[in-house]
Amino acid sequence: MTGNVRDLLVSCRHSPEEMLALTRQTSRIREQNGQKDPGAYHRALENHRQEMVGRLALLEDMISTLKNARSRTIMRYYYTMGWGDAQIAIEMDLTEEWVRKKRYAAIRELEREWKYALA
């Protein structure tokens, strides 16, 4: 994969909603076509879904290297589950500002640790 940490984070940020939409679309096509070949559109959707799964797996590998457990949890909630800072703050009984600061610090840590791995 080429790019940088922030590119990966941005691509994964809304992945829960996108994965759900792709799954629904591929299911509808499968239902409409029955046993017939689902066609190029279905294959393109499935390829896109597989790419997303790969990016999420890479992100999980990266997040697991963070030293602080709370930072790992915040990053997982924000980037793999699509939660906002306010929702995370409520879940973890923290302030939004603290969540945001912890997330930004985690991003900087990931950038330092992974800047050459993604090139």
Give the arrangement of secondary structure elements.
Layout: H1 5-13, H2 15-33, H3 40-63, H4 69-80, H5 85-92, H6 96-114
Task: Please describe what this structure looks like.
By secondary structure, this protein is an all-alpha fold. It has one domain. Helix content is 76%, strand content 0%. It has 6 helices and no strands. The chain has helices at residues 5-13, 15-33, 40-63, 69-80, 85-92, 96-114. Helix 1 crosses helix 3 (40-63), helix 2 (15-33) runs antiparallel to helix 3 (40-63) and helix 3 packs antiparallel against helix 4 (69-80). It starts with a helix and ends in a 5-residue tail after the last helix.
Concise synopsis of the structure shown:
The chain has 119 residues and is mainly alpha-helical.
Features:
119 residues, single chain, 6 helices, mainly alpha
Rg, rounded, reads 17 Å
Counted up, domains total: 1
DSSP summary, beta strand count: 0
Shape: elongated
Query: How far is the first residue's CA from the last residue's CA?
Result: 7 Å
Q: Uncertain spans, ≥5 residues at pLDDT below 50?
A: none
Largest sheet: none
Strand coverage percent:
under 5%
Q: Fraction of residues in helices? A: over 70%
- Sequence of secondary-structure elements: HHHHHH
